[in-house]
Design brief:
519 residues, BirA Bifunctional Protein, domain 2, 3 domains, seven-stranded mixed β-sheet, binds glycyl-adenosine-5'-phosphate
């Protein structure tokens, strides 16, 4: 989001979503049937953008071992990849705690049939009143808050100002007070249920009989596939602690309130690494990963005020985290969280919680014999867990740059490494030998850069409209063949971000672009 360039207000999510649809980044899933809440399809440019982000992570984190950094032990960082099943034996999710504990407390409205995360509901009351009628609204929902204020004013039969009201989280109220609340979108109290636990895992059945014995779950995180293969990897690869196992894959969560475009979806992709180390070294590896992951997101274009690293307070730590264990989030300032931030990636010291749980439940040994230390132990684990889908969203928000001075009024300022279209080639007019030169240049560039993204050839419409289309697609460079090209063997390259135009030799375009794209 380039709010810092012009004004200090966030971009409009409606505008971004409209561009995503118009240019083929993201579509509503099942759109022709009215959509399906919490699911999104990626169009041609979105699919390539997501692929480029995943490739950047795969290459930098896994293949280059944290972009070639030296670990706190002074050695290169070793990470190996893995690709595991979405459906595993249900015992995996019992041992991991997801069957018993992966719950969000939620509140249903009997009248509107809406379902709310209890921890996201706030209650508006007359200042000083600790019981009696209250009006529930979703936190950060200005419209619902305004409506609650209006209804409270009507109920109290007076004009009310902000100083006349108090707001408390619904979860802090005694249960018997829920009946006195008026839910969002209804007029009378008594339609909200008490908060109830709701397991977020999607259930399915294996085989034809579909009895309770055949229940299986769609994975809610990719991490457990790594833990349950820890022993296999140790036994088949020449890896030694410290080392990491990483993967990219789809996860599913039956989120109570999917919202904010793809931010909280029911099907999404994760990029997770489990990094195993000796218990005595977990703090330094945690700090290494925390700082590396922040730097990495910056390196692919999320910069400045919109990105921050936030260490969790002690009371936010997960149930498995030992006291003093580090947990941090890399957070992005999304337009819908603005001026606050929302999670992009979590980096957590999980101690040996997962390996020990699986060792106890499966009786398979999860120990590692450390020859250097002559010691057998269950390694501790540092987990950098990033959202691929959520990363794409952050990249889209960051790239969206309003510019009233160009015909498109907006351009997508993608890092060249991520841009789904790497370059476009235009003949200025579709005659006088220009299309032939353009086709040849396009074929050369496609041959050279096609593995990294699209190279487009566009001959239609006037040049201004073609530039406008490429600005919205976020194409960093456009090469135009004009009337002089056949004599001076040069083309005009237009830079997306600066609108600068320069003339470069036709034969030098490939090398020139190579130098600009990086990665
Ligand atoms: N293995 C640890 C784990 O899954 P998490 O914080 O629940 O941790 C990691 O998820 C990342 O996955 C989050 O930081 C976020 O980027 C992404 N993520 C989680 N739930 C999501 C959802 N419902 N929709 C989109 N992305 C999600």
């Amino acid at each position: 989001m380039n709010q810092t360039d012009t004004t200090d207000t966030p971009i409009s999510m409606d505008d971004l979503m409209a561009l995503c649809k118009r240019r083929g980044f993201i579509y509503q899933a099942s759109e022709i049937y009215g959509g399906i809440n919490g699911f999104w399809d990626y169009g041609p440019l979105g699919a390539q953008l997501k692929r480029n982000l995943a490739d950047a992570w795969w290459n930098d984190v896994i293949m280059m071992g944290c972009s070639g950094r030296t670990g706190p032990n002074g050695k290169p960082v070793r990470i190996v990849p893995l690709d595991t099943c979405i459906i595993q034996n249900p015992k995996v999710w019992e041992a991991s705690g997801h069957v018993g504990g992966f719950n969000d407390p939620m509140v249903d409205c009997r009248e509107t049939k809406s379902r709310y995360r209890a921890d996201h509901l706030m209650v508006l009351r007359e200042a000083g009143a600790s019981e009696g009628r209250g009006y529930a609204f979703m936190e950060n929902d200005e419209e619902q808050l305004a409506r609650a204020m209006k209804l409270l004013g009507k109920y109290l039969r007076k004009d009310i100002a902000e100083s006349d009201v108090s707001v408390t989280p619904l979860v802090s109220l005694p249960k018997e007070q829920i009946a006195d609340l008026v839910g969002p979108g209804v007029k009378d109290p008594g339609t909200l249920t008490e908060p109830r636990a709701f397991n977020l895992m999607f259930k399915t059945y294996i085989g034809a009989t579909a009895t309770e014995d055949d229940v299986a779950y769609l994975r809610p995180e990719t991490a457990q596939g790594i833990f349950i293969n820890f022993k296999n990897v140790i036994d088949t690869m020449r890896v030694r602690v410290p080392f990491g196992i990483a993967n990219i894959g789809t996860s599913f969560r039956n989120e109570v309130t999917p919202r904010n475009f793809t931010f909280r979806s029911r099907e999404f992709e994760q990029m997770e690494c489990e990094f195993f180390c000796h218990p005595s070294e977990s703090r330094e590896w945690y700090e290494f990963w925390r700082d590396y992951r922040m730097d990495w997101w910056e390196s692919i274009g999320l910069k400045g005020d919109n990105l921050r690293l936030r260490e969790h307070d002690e009371d936010e730590l997960a149930h498995y985290a030992k006291e003093g264990a580090g947990t941090a989030d890399v957070e992005y300032r999304y337009p819908f969280t603005y001026p606050d931030f929302g999670e992009l990636e979590g980096v957590a010291d999980r101690a040996n919680f997962d390996l020990t749980s699986h060792q106890t439940a499966s009786r398979a040994k999860m120990e590692f014999f450390d020859q250097e230390r002559n010691e057998r132990y269950v390694p501790h684990c540092i987990e950098p867990a990033a959202g691929l889908s959520r990363g794409v969203l952050a990249v889209l928000c960051e790239a969206y740059t309003p510019d009233p001075n160009r015909p498109s009024k907006v351009f997508m300022k993608f890092h060249p490494r991520l841009a789904p279209i790497k370059a476009a080639v235009f003949p200025l007019v579709n005659k006088e030998g220009m299309p032939e030169i353009a086709e040849k240049l396009h074929a050369d560039l496609h041959q050279r850069f096609g593995r990294r993204g699209f190279v487009e050839l566009d001959v239609k419409q006037n040049i201004g409209k073609r530039y406008a289309r490429m600005d919205e697609a976020g194409t960093p460079f456009c090469f135009t063949i004009d009337g002089d090209t056949s004599s001076d063997h040069a083309v005009t390259v237009r830079h997306r971000d600066t609108l600068e135009q320069e003339r470069i030799g036709l034969d030098a375009v490939g090398e020139w672009l190579e130098g600009k794209l990086g990665g």
